Amino acid sequence: MKTKLLLLFILITSFTFSQRITETIQSKKLGEERGFTVSLPTNYEFDVEKKYPVLVLLDGEYLLNPFEGILKYGNYWDDLPEMIIVAVNQNYDEKRFDDSDYDGTGLPSGKGANFFEFIGFELLPYIEGKYRTQPFRIIAGHDTTAGFLNFYLYKDDPVFNGYISLAPEMAPQMDKRIAERLALIKKPIFYYLAIGQGDLADINQGAKILDKNIAAIPNKTFSYQFDQFKGATHYSLVAQAIPQALYFIFQGYQPISMMEYKEKIATLDKGYAQYLIDKYTKLEEKFGLKLKPRLTDFKAIEAAILKNKAYFELQDLSKYAEKQYPKTTLGTYHQALYYEKSGEFKKAAKEYKKGYALTEIREITRSFMLDKAESLKDKEDKSTVEEYAEPLPEENGEEKKESE
Q: What is the rounded distance in angstroms from the CA atom of residue 3 to the CA atom of residue 171?
């Protein structure tokens, strides 16, 4: 446990934090000025076209550092996306308890109802009007605020896509209502729940009942994960739960790994290029993230195609590369490689030479393309494209017989 906490501390203090902006807005809902901190991604000012998901942190004073550190670490390895973090200040003058107020029926009331509307009708519109955001939002909180964030699930069209509830102190009937709402909500929802083995009995009991109710939902249309950390206290569980929560929500965002390549791609009979297309299409559908396919992922798919001698798929990969990286050497390289592997060396050399007029992309430089063309100039075509083309389907399950 101490090792994990020390690792987290080193992680947080070793990386230069993103740009932080302290802001306040005059809230009509709360009848007061409210402060919060906005943490922008490192490259926010440089990549002026890029838009980012939004993470709202309740108890922002002490949750900002660990969330910011894990996101920065994950993004360094391209495992997690950059996000705009909005950390709401609540740890003064009993604000966090006033903000989370509810009545005897377990619904937001008084200052709690006002704070509920402040987040949805004032804070989020302000952030999305001032900063470059994508329509994927996550909210996170701890104990009292972790219970409060669940109220947003009570709406038919919740304003948040992801919920990170750390050791929640839940309102009456919440352990039942959350499960009921998750079963009915149509939009994709990501729900993460975590407790520590050494936490208060009431907190753990409520979370376990909720987990049981969620587990009983048939045909789930949402993503859900529940963690109970062995030996963790009410406070130490936060350090362990944050990376688990973020990696759970953004599962599939990561580049193609060696394991994914060996188990899911190299074993395919066909559809290697389509695998890459589907991966990034699903990312956009799931998170609203419009990402350029990673060049390392193109290389992984190319390797699978070559390994399985499915050379005709290099054309599909070429077309996708032209769409994603137009006027670069990437698409032309794959088309040329198709001709080369098909034995049409003259066409391959001609295609490689086109690279001289295109923008270089990583190791596929102009000189690399010209060298490839030069290496093929004395080779004679030995095969036809048809020999390597995708076989046509057999008619009526039988091979066509040659006419006598």
A: 35
Backbone angles phi, psi at 8, to 5 degrees: -65, -40
Q: Residues 6 or more apart from 153 whose CB is under 8 A from it?
A: 163, 177, 178, 181, 182, 185, 189
Report in angstroms the alpha-carbon separations of 378 from 44, 315, 339, 373, 387.
Answer: 50, 24, 15, 10, 22
What is the Cα–Cα distance from 266 to 338, expressed in whole angstroms?
Answer: 18
CA distances from 296 to 150, 333, 361 (A): 39, 15, 12
Dihedral of alpha carbons 320, 321, 327, 333, sign: negative
Contacts of 369 (CB under 8 A, 6+ apart): 329, 332, 333, 336, 352, 353, 354, 355, 356
For the stretch 300-311, pLDDT in tens is: 999 999 999 999
Q: Which two tokens stand for residue 72?
A: 């920065």
* Strand 223-229 relative to strand 190-196, pairing: parallel
CB 102 within 8 A of CB 92: no
Percent composition of the chain: helix, strand, coil (DSSP 3-state, to 5): 50, 15, 35
How does pLDDT run across 362-377, given as a tens digit for each residue? 999 999 999 999 999 8
Q: What is the pLDDT of residues 312-348, one digit of tens each?
A: 999 999 999 999 999 999 999 999 999 999 999 999 9
Q: Specify the 3-state DSSP secondary structure of 254.
A: coil
Token reading at 133: 């955001």
- Return the DSSP state at 395: B
52-86 pLDDT, tens digit each: 999 999 999 999 999 999 999 999 999 999 999 99
Side chain identity at residue 101, one-letter code: D
Residues 266-304, buried b or exposed e (16+ Cβ, 10 A)? eeeeeebbbbbbebbeebeebbebeeebbbebbebbbeb
**pLDDT 10s digits, 239-272:** 999 999 999 999 999 999 999 999 999 999 999 9
What type of residue sits at position 152? Answer: Y
